[in-house]
Write a structure and sequence with these properties.
The complex is a heterotrimer of chains A (about 300), B (about 650) and C (about 160). Chain A starts with 6 loop residues before the first strand and ends with a helix. By secondary structure, chain A is of the alpha+beta class. Chain A has twelve helices and 14 strands. Chain B has three domains: about 190 residues, Aldehyde Oxidoreductase, domain 3 (Alpha-Beta Complex); about 190 residues, Aldehyde oxidase/xanthine dehydrogenase, molybdopterin binding domain (Aldehyde Oxidoreductase, domain 4), CATH 3.30.365; about 170 residues, Aldehyde Oxidoreductase, domain 4, CATH 3.30.365.10. An eight-stranded mixed beta sheet of chain B has the order 3-5-1-12-9-10-11-21, sandwiched between helices. A five-stranded mixed beta sheet of chain B has the order 7-15-14-13-8, with helices on both faces. Chains B and C meet through helix 1 of B and helix 2 and helix 3 of C.
Amino acid sequence: MKPASFHYYRARSLQEALDLLSGAAANGKLLAGGQSLIPLMNLRLARPEALIDLNSIPGLSYIRSEGNKIAIGALTRHREMEFSELLAKELPLLAEAIPQIGHPAIRNRGTLGGSLAHADPAAELPCVLTALDARMVAAGPDGERVIRAEDFFTGFYATALADHEILKEVRIPLDRHPAGWSFVEFARRHGDFALAEASVLLFADGAGDRCTSARVVIGGSVEKPVRVQDVEKLIQDEISIRTQASSLAHVLRRVEQLTETEIRSSIAGRENPDYLCHLTGVLARRALESAMERWRKA
Amino acid sequence: MKSAQWKGRALHPREDRRFVTGRGLYLPNLSFPKMLHAAILRSIHPHARIVSIDVAEALKIPGVVCALTGEQARALSKPLRPLIPLPVETPYYCLAYEKVRYVGEPVVAVAAASRYLAEDALEKIRVEYEPLPAVVDPEAAMKPGAPLLFEPLETNILWHDCFTYGDVDGVFKQAAHVFSERFFIHRYSSTPLETFGCIASYDSSRRYLTLWTNDQRPGQAMPILAHSLGLFNTQIRFITADIGGGFGNKRKPPYLVLAALLSKLGGRPVQFIEDRRENLMGLVHACNGVMELEVAVGEAGRLLGVKVRDIADEGLNVLNPTVHSLLKLGNVTNCYEIGAVRFEGYSVMTNKCPSGANRGIGKPFMCLALERMLDNIARRLGRDRIELRRQNLVPPDKMPYTTPTGELIDSGNFPETLNKLLSLIGYESFREEQEKARSRGRWLGLGLALAIEPSTSNQSSYILTSGRRNASGAGEAAMVRVESDGSVQVVLGDVGSGQGHQTAAAQIVADELGVDFEAVQVSPYFDSLVSPWLYTTGNYSNKFAGTDVGAIQGAAKKVKEKLLSLAAYLLKALPEELELADGTVRSKKDPNIRKTLQELAQVAYRDLLLRHRAQSGHRRRAGPRRHGSWDRGSAVRGVRLR
Amino acid sequence: MKAPDLVPVSLEVNGVRFEGDVEPRKTLADFLREELGFTGVNLGCEHGVCGACSVLLDGAVVRSCILLAVQADGCKITTIEGLAREEKLHPIQQAFLDHHALQCGFCTPGMVLAAVDLLKRSPHPTEIQIREALSGNLCMCTGYVNIVRAVSAAAERIQTAEKP
């Protein structure tokens, strides 16, 4: 299990990386944390002609508060996000998901940008950042453009990034602080990729007792993060902080069923679709339960 | 007091110090100048005829030294010798010849200056296959017309036999109830963290092969290797050291042959280390299989007899099939008193990777089937599953107990063991806990199975399958030597794979020779040039306590006798008046009358004439007595199981 | 495609500087094992699952089988060989001995280094934190209970030793 040969370029600036990508290393792959790419190369399932190593580019690793948003550099490692007090305070959903990425050794190397550009449907970050309505900043030969998370992930391991673009930064809006939040996943082994996962964000009105809107995003069992809008609407219509236990139980059951119905078509073609549908529904329900609990406690 | 000074103490395994500091003597850590690295191209088909193989492009890569095909392997080696007699010779070589028979079967091997280059070479090899129908279900493989793995055998059934013990027909006729059930088990395999590996260095000038490996059963691998390569054992030096986990399946003679042939072709040492993908694909598995079980039960719930029809799916295991079946036979009545047994077994080949030893070898399936059956019987008879078991356990007053198939259970209080188990798991209060959990939406269950785990293998399967007594009994070998400075060297046949054998051996020898634990050095190597060994030598079958300990102690005793006789001569005493303690041989009455081991060793190593006098029978106060050679004692201990 | 050029690499391993040219595809694990002789870096899976090849890279535990040697340029690396000083074991190594936290020993270097990383960040880890920190390291001889005990004991020992 040794990688095939490739040419290696160590980029010293984003511009140099962009130049390489549209020039000398046009058939190359970008190397960030390498925690998914190098295993694929060791197995020779991936055999790029060239690697452009981004790790020596200064100024791509940061977590900053910028008014009504948080900006995170693409080379920021999972570990730095895991221990960021700013993220823990402002983006608790993200903070909850990060420790569930792989194991400490993976988080010490893996990067935000690498994970998103790799777009493994079973990874945590695509699901969470879609729920957070994040914006991806892509740098290209002709300048930068901003892509909404919902448009960024286009399928299994596929993104809207063009061939010669590099993901540079992720911006996460802070205009509304969630009243409740939760990210849950199910993996066969601790630290493994998730079979299914669910992110839930609940937003409340000024008085803080009625749910004005919700975001529910499913990952893992589907080929790219999927917002389940019928479920979001159901929550918005039916849930308030005073919802009685019996009617809440009823809503939770419906959330489970509705999630199953909504994602069934996305799951078709996967192994064990019935199981995956069921599992995903259960996770959506559990995520909502735990988000409600946080709301009540707050 | 001195007799149990070191045994019974909980010591840190002395092996651990090298492991925690990263200095384990694992095979992959060995390297030799100019060593080549092997990689193997494996079959992508479960069953196919090999039409052509073209390695020309691979050999053009700078640094790629040689390639080996099945055709060449056939020219350079004999088929790997099966451990059971087969009616015709099976052309089973280290590489697929003419046909591939499972996904992952080695087809071409290359040796190159690095594993990176060797893998590059594999990508340039062209193999043309003509796919054949495959059979992957053992029952389908038994049927007439099934695709055949080896056409000259005219069947996929490698072995079939039926054994009857006791009045089986009688008890089934008298039985109040007869229950039957069909069971399936999947394949499984334990995966040691260190994969299999070897380094072969063949010196063609003296036709001599030196082989380092982490194969866990040298005693069996060596003769297979020698036979296949057409060498005498004396032309092979076989060395193992620390093994990074074994679990039974780190036993792969074909790969040893393969590395040896590559070294012969390449003229340099060749290292082959299985990567994890190869390990998962081609590692020997435990057999999957089907078992039909019938149990005769008396009016009051007594188990009277069992009938078993067992079909073991061996995959492409022509080396040592039948073992999974026959270990079931050895364990068929588990811990119960059942008077009559009929066991019909089949070993069947399919287009799957070879089966072999793997944690338990057949015993888990036997236990699963019988214990599941007992639950079913209890349910159908309206009996409590614990009580039904308790009623049928071999009672303590019948110990030692011989099972109908001939196994001797030497001791045990099974009902008491069961009681202890139930109290430890809080069986009585479990129902409450279960109810509580269920009311909260959690479903708890409690399964119960009893098992006997026999240790040490006694080779009976060879006799049963061949009808010949070509191997029998269980044993291991060890050597103990006092060095010229009085320190003690121990060499084991079974160096272990993390169980702490080297520590335990030092404890045993220290006590036997009355020396300090630290004065006893135990070699971490098995080296066929210096280690005593037997066919049964190796690290498997939980055998350390059963056989290895006896061998170590036996060897130490022989050295002890020699020390006593030499000291007796020098101290003008009788051996029985002396004892070994504190690194000396001394008078039991007056500890000041003594010789240190170093003093005795000085005589033994340097003063050969005095040693000769002492040994040649001059018992100074008694008549002459003969003793064996001085400097080496080795012993073989057998444990009788049947 | 012409053969890729060798890339100069300069790094510090266990306090000693090494410089050399390396093929870009060479993994850090192979580089440490084959070129520098640090064979305590055990290879168990070569695709970042088992953790046997763990090393500390600038103090953080990483898997050297899924890092390229060229990526370690300018870094400080600690392998298991760099933990003990002469005869004196690191407290975690000692605790592994004391608590019989190993059998075949193949996973041990990775376990110990993952624990070093943990105790640096969390000097008083809970059992759950220890289990989480070691969750990327597989032991096939199944000695996890004693491994967790050893790390816990090592944490206590380090704390006691550091008290004035």
